[in-house]
Amino acid sequence: MTVDVLRRFITCARGQDLIEYVLLLALAVIVTTAMLMTAGESLSAVWNAPILGTTHSSSETGKR
Q: What are the structural domain ranges in the chain?
């Protein structure tokens, strides 16, 4: 019974569309996660710099 349902799901065109959409969504999630992990460190530095007072512009302003 379960094997027949699975076989019909795989051979049905609607099942193929669903699988394609799921794979596309999974690819988008993986790419987005990779981009956020890569950019996360630099974004963290940008947001934490004013809090910590370590911005490049504030150090230059103090020297003038």
A: 2-63
